[in-house]
Specification:
146 residues, single chain, mainly beta, eight-stranded antiparallel β-sheet, two-stranded antiparallel sheet
């Protein structure tokens, strides 16, 4: 039985895509969520301090890395954006952290995600490493749902 008294480990996770299904990646950098404060003060305020008002919320990018395989589904998704069909490329994505037994744990869901950058692997005939490709995905909303 998994130890649920401790935190989840960061090495077992799944990525779910609407049009691709479940994809495997070796690394996943979840985006941040930031709401910048706007400082404001009226000239007749009694307190000599500024108020902090909320502004627009911004989300960072989701970055995925994996060993290069024969699968080109994600490259085709990026190609759709390169051809100008950003609206058609938008889809929902989820990252699911798994416990030690492979059961689903915390889940983050992302809205209107589309790939903004694809980085092909660096190749070196004298190296002894896995060829890694990187996909950077723009998101317009993020929520931890469990």
């Amino acid at each position: 039985m998994a130890d649920r008294y401790g935190p989840y480990r960061n090495y077992r996770f799944l990525l779910e895509f609407d049009s691709v299904g479940v994809a495997a990646f070796s690394e996943c950098a979840l985006p941040d969520s930031t709401t910048e404060p706007i400082e404001y003060r009226d000239g007749n305020d009694v307190k000599a301090t500024v108020r902090k008002l909320g502004s627009l919320t911004k989300y960072g990018n989701l970055t995925l890395k994996r060993g290069t395989t024969d699968s080109i589904e994600l490259v085709e998704w990026r190609k759709q954006v390169e051809q100008g069909d950003v609206d058609g490329a938008r889809q929902s994505i989820a990252v699911v952290l798994l416990d030690e037994e492979g059961n689903p744990g915390p889940r983050w869901e992302f809205e209107n995600a589309w790939p903004s950058k694809y980085d092909a692997p660096d190749l070196n005939a004298t190296a002894n490493e896995v060829a890694i490709e990187t996909l950077e995905i723009v998101v317009e909303g993020m929520e931890r749902v469990s």
